[in-house]
Specification:
This protein is mainly alpha-helical. It contains 8 helices and no strands. Helix 6 packs across helix 8. The longest helix is centred in the last third of the chain and has 25 residues.
Length: 180
């Protein structure tokens, strides 16, 4: 994006308005990624803010040949990994995860809530690298080369982690549906 490159250049020279535009462009994607990793809204908000603060402070170190989005996700992934290591606690479901849709029957709500919780738990139970790759690919709709750059791994490692995550999720969900 030509507009994005101009914003990056202006922001690197200290233009706060240009950086604000970059934040507006990426804040929802970064927040969504961190939220899926931590399952805690307040923590996700804090880590998102930390991500953009670190980006602002290190903008001069941004490689112009890299994708800005990959660089931001790399910062977010590192901040999140550090937080999760430090926290050393179980990740709980978000309070509003099971908010019912207005057009679903009561029985459908129970089934949706239960299967939604199982899916979220299955994703939560993935090893950290697979969880990050899965969230970036599935929810963030990032390309494998962008994921590889953000996590500083090879494209084949990103693909392998995604395939392994899918395999584990399918296995986990098949057990759930067999029990239903």
């Amino acid at each position: 994006m030509a507009g994005e490159k101009e914003l990056i250049e202006k922001a690197a020279k200290g233009d706060k308005n240009a950086f604000t535009e970059l934040v507006r462009t990426y804040q929802n994607r970064i927040f969504g990624f961190v939220m899926r990793m931590t399952a805690n809204r307040e923590t996700a908000l804090d880590l998102t803010q930390d991500t953009f603060l670190a980006a602002w402070q290190n903008l001069n170190g941004f490689r112009k040949d890299a994708l800005f989005s990959s660089w931001l996700f790399q910062i977010a992934a590192n901040k999140t990994k550090n937080y999760l290591k430090k926290a050393k606690r179980e990740i709980s479901l978000p309070n509003d995860f099971d908010a019912p849709s207005g057009d679903v029957s009561p029985h459908g709500r129970v089934v949706n809530k239960e299967s939604g919780q199982k899916i979220l738990q299955a994703v939560t139970d993935l090893p950290p690298r697979q969880k990050m790759v899965f969230n970036m690919r599935y929810f963030g709709q990032m390309k494998f080369n962008e994921i590889a750059e953000a996590l500083e791994i090879s494209v084949s490692a990103a693909k392998t982690n995604y395939a392994e995550a899918l395999k584990k999720l399918k296995k986990s969900m098949s057990k759930f549906y067999e029990m239903s």
